[in-house]
Structures are given as structure tokens and as C-alpha cells.
Design brief:
The protein is mainly alpha-helical. It is 88% helix and 0% strand.
């Protein structure tokens, strides 16, 4: 009994280490192909359009409503302490530091990440990747690398749009609906938001999230079983793992940024 349990545990550990090793090799291969991928920038540009432009609607609408909620909740919280004029600062810092990169990455994982995994998984199931290898075309360089860089470029842009629209939503609720002074709203924001410390940290987060979400989506599609059930399972796993990775990385990055 004990021998059987130890054997099963060893097999699981061995498989886990093999999977992590394969993922690490694939990750460094994609980074090594960055130069070749960026030289054929038309492929990367098409992926930025596919991943970014098609995600723009959900990012914009979500950012607007998050800004609405921040404006309402922030006003009623700050009003207790007589600091309603700082509403613009509260909305801006909440978005550029945390909510913009994190929520945009979660939405990106659900929309673009799932699409990437399904696309690569269907290529695997249809033996298109094998056909490219038979024609002496590296599928990593031709298929995965442009999508990898497309996601890295698209997510920071989407996070910036999310934050900008969210600030606009906070302005609409706080100034136009509730009646906070517009001058105080913008002046507090301009005086309290640091370009390098606040906006810069948000950009760093969004780039890291873009690398993580895009790579996980590509990895899950690349190793998906070539069956309809396998592709569906890989797509679900991609969204779950990407979302958990974004939340975990957010905690790590925030702890590192505030400790410096």
C-alpha cells in the first residue's frame, strides 16, 4: 500500500517537473525568436489588431462602469472625512496602480487568451502545426512568436485605455452627477499622481501580465490533446491559470514596488 502510494506520488512529481521543464524551454525559445518575429512586424501587427482591437469593446465598457462605481463609492467614503475634493486622486490612483492593469488582464485572459488557446489547439488537432514542420517551417517562429509579442504589446495599451475611460467615468459620476468641484477633481489628481512611481508601476504590471497571460494561453493550446474535449479543457484551463497567475503576480509586484 505504502509502496503504491509512493510510486503514484513519484509519478505525479515526475510529470509535474517534466511539464514545468517543457514550459520553461518553450518560454525561452519564444524569447529567443523575438528578433525574427519583430523583423516580420506585419505578423505581430495583425495579432495586435486581433487581440487588442477585438478586446477594445469589453475593455472600454468595463472601464467605464468601474469608473462609475469608484466615483460613487469614493465620494461617499471621502465625504465622511470632509475630503470629497480628493475624489479625482482616489479614482486615478486606484485605476493606474491596481484596477487598470489587473482587471484589463483578467478580461484579456477571458477573451483573447481563450481565443489564442482555442486557435492553437485547433491547429494542433487539425495537424496544421505538424504540416508546417513537414514543410521545414518552424511553427514556434511562424505561429506562436508573433502571437506572443502581439499579446505583450496589446495588453499595456488596453490597460491604458481602461484606466483613461475609468477616470472619465469617475469624472462623470463625481463632477457631473454628484457635484464635486471640477477644478478640485483634476488638480488633486494632477498633484498627487506621480508619473514614474504610479503610472510607471502600472505599465510594468501590465507588461508582466501580458507576458504571463499570453504565454499561458499559447502553452495550453500547444500542449492540448488533439480532440474536441482536449481543446475545450485546454481553453478552460488557460483562463483559470491565467487569472490566478495575474492575481498572484499582482501581489508579488505590489509588494516589491512598495518595498523599494
Amino acid at each position: 500500500m505504502i509502496t503504491t502510494m509512493l510510486g503514484a506520488l513519484g509519478a505525479i512529481t515526475r510529470q509535474l517537473l517534466a511539464d514545468w521543464g517543457f514550459a520553461a524551454r518553450l518560454f525561452f525559445k519564444l524569447w529567443g525568436m523575438s528578433g525574427a518575429a519583430l523583423k516580420r512586424f506585419a505578423l505581430v501587427r495583425d495579432q495586435v489588431h486581433f487581440l487588442g482591437n477585438y478586446s477594445l469593446a469589453i475593455i472600454t465598457v468595463s472601464g467605464l462602469f468601474v469608473g462609475f462605481v469608484l466615483g460613487l463609492q469614493g465620494y461617499y467614503t471621502l465625504q465622511r472625512y470632509g475630503s470629497a475634493e480628493a475624489l479625482g486622486l482616489l479614482v486615478a490612483l486606484s485605476l493606474v496602480r491596481e484596477l487598470g492593469p489587473v482587471v484589463a488582464a483578467l478580461l484579456f485572459a477571458g477573451r483573447a487568451g481563450a481565443s489564442l488557446t482555442a486557435e492553437i489547439g485547433l491547429m494542433r488537432a487539425g495537424e496544421q502545426l505538424t504540416a508546417l514542420e513537414m514543410m521545414a517551417v518552424d511553427p514556434l517562429q511562424r505561429i506562436l512568436a508573433p502571437r506572443f509579442w502581439g499579446g505583450i504589446i496589446a495588453l499595456p495599451l488596453l490597460a491604458a485605455v481602461f484606466s483613461a475611460v475609468g477616470i472619465l467615468g469617475g469624472y462623470v459620476v463625481g463632477v457631473l452627477l454628484i457635484g464635486v468641484d471640477a477644478g478640485s477633481f483634476w488638480s488633486q489628481m494632477q498633484g498627487g499622481v506621480d508619473v514614474f512611481k504610479d503610472v510607471g508601476n502600472g505599465i510594468i504590471k501590465s507588461v508582466v501580465f501580458g507576458v504571463a497571460v499570453t504565454f499561458i494561453a499559447l502553452l495550453q493550446g500547444y500542449v492540448a490533446k488533439p480532440t474536441p474535449e482536449g481543446v475545450a479543457s485546454a481553453t478552460t484551463r488557460s483562463v483559470v491559470v491565467s487569472s490566478l497567475s495575474v492575481l498572484g503576480l499582482d501581489f508579488i509586484l505590489t509588494a516589491m514596488m512598495f518595498s523599494i
